[in-house]
Amino acid sequence: MIVAYPQLISLCLLISVISVDAGRPGGLEFKKVKFCEFPHDETARVKISPWPFIPSGKPGNITITFTPAVDVFAATLQYEVKSDGHIVARGRDNVCHKFPELCSLPAGETYVWTYSDVMRAIPPGFKMTIRGVVELYNEERVVFVCLDVVATIH
Ligand SMILES: *[C@@H]1O[C@H](CO)[C@@H](O)[C@H](O)[C@H]1NC(C)=O
Fold this sequence. Notes:
It comes from Desmophyllum pertusum. This protein is mainly beta. The protein has no helices and nine strands. A hairpin with a 5-residue loop joins strand 8 and strand 9.
């Protein structure tokens, strides 16, 4: 199994799915990034830079703007990544220790969250198209951010 799952704690999931030594120049090419139907949030924006391709070894930023409809005192990240209908990664983690700023959000206030990381190396010849759904929910299990992402790793 080439895919490794250790970094999926954060919304960097799509920047960090692969952990292998150097290979030919590859990277992560986004095909689609959108918010899930629920929750409805007029302010919801996602910006990925560089777009739509983050080359291996290069830094990338993900900025998410959202307005939680509920107070958030604790946040849990839940993700599921599929390729060809098969689950390649799935998990759930409390994010407060790593991203405390996501764990004290007042309802109705717009928040901008940026994550920066360096794209991991992709093994030579590796290619995989993935679809991932990432949800953040609060201590009452109300989802306040949900992203639906399709990308190709190559
Ligand atoms: C990521 O964000 C930092 C800080 O705003 C900025 O200096 C950098 O140029 C950005 N990198 C990319 C690839 O957009």
